[in-house]
């Protein structure tokens, strides 16, 4: 009887861990003529969804964030009208490797 209780508890814990939305580091940029309200809406959705805005760019219209995949799908759909470019944040070198 104790073993089955342990198994149920373990499965419950594992299913809770699996249900966690995986966070990605992304850079989201928009064309210069995109209204600021569009960026504000995207940033709000990310923060409301448990993500974090890690950097706001000054020279280009965009920001970097850590965001869950589900929220990223929503922001991607909103950004299609304004030609948002969403890419995973990564290290880029000019030497072909690190």
Automatic annotation (TrEMBL):
The keyword Kinase does not apply. Keywords: Signal. Residues 1-19 form the signal peptide. GO terms for biological process: vacuole fusion, non-autophagic. The keyword Signal applies. GO terms for molecular function: endopeptidase inhibitor activity. InterPro entries: PBI_I9, S8pro/Inhibitor_I9_sf. Belongs to the protease inhibitor I9 family. This is Proteinase inhibitor, propeptide.
